[in-house]
Amino acid sequence: MGHYFKYQLIKYMNTYKFIPPFTIYLVIIVALYAYKNLPILSSFDTTMILTFLIASWITATIINADTINERHMFYIHLGNKTNYFFNKMLLSLIICLFLVIFSVIYPVVTGRFDKPLTFTHIFLGLYTHIYAAILAIIVTFFILSTKLSKFKFSWLLLVLILLLSIISSAFSQSFMLLNYILPPISKLSEVLSQGDDIAIGSRVVISFIHTTIYSIILLVVAGYLNKKSE
Questions:
Q1: Arithmetic mean of pLDDT over the chain
Q2: Which of 134, 141, 152, 157 could form a disulfide with 145 if both were Cys (CB 3.0 to 4.6 A apart)?
Q3: Model confidence over 3-27: pLDDT tens digits?
Q4: Is residue 180 within 8 Å of residue 218, measured between CB atoms?
């Protein structure tokens, strides 16, 4: 398993498909922190949403990195299709973690915030960014690595879901069902929009529970649909 994972990582890096999303991400992060004395959590909110979008892009390139013949060869090597599916997800997460770490560490090292960071700030920054990446990865696999990928407008569907997730708070009261269908990115944004004096209270805990349960359910469904595809 370790040799396979190392092979996949090297193979993906050699495709250079990571360069466009990585470059755009790093350039936007540097541009966002071009000024000093910025509020902490609202800045993290912006980079968290950026992470959500770019993580989906990176995951899409990882899904499409193997040909059909290579996939079937890997199914045999790993024992079954499910192992291949989850290894691809893990690879996506590890690569996205580099972006998460950069987005949180860069403004700290360069002194861009208007006040010193506390443990709560760092925790919330890492927690929201990591969960944004996880949600993006699972949603992208759900659309592009199952039978849904056979549909002509699967890419458009993925983009639509990502965008609706980001702006869902604007219409969540009118369409309550969407709170349970769309990835709960807006819940993470609500945590980061409470101001820099926030404490880890009930809203943070509820957000964590909601996001975790949603991720697990969608992961199980995506894994099942992936197993039934092809």
A1: 85
A2: 141
A3: 777 888 888 888 888 899 999 999 9
A4: no
- Over the stretch 176-193, which tens digit does the pLDDT of each residue have? 677 778 888 988 888 888
Backbone angles phi, psi at 172, to 5 degrees: -65, -30
pTM beyond 0.85: yes
Q: Report the C-alpha gap between 188 and 129 in whole angstroms.
A: 9
**CB-CB neighbours of 108 under 10 Å:** 15
Burial class (CB in 10 A: 0-12, 13-18, 19+), 184: buried
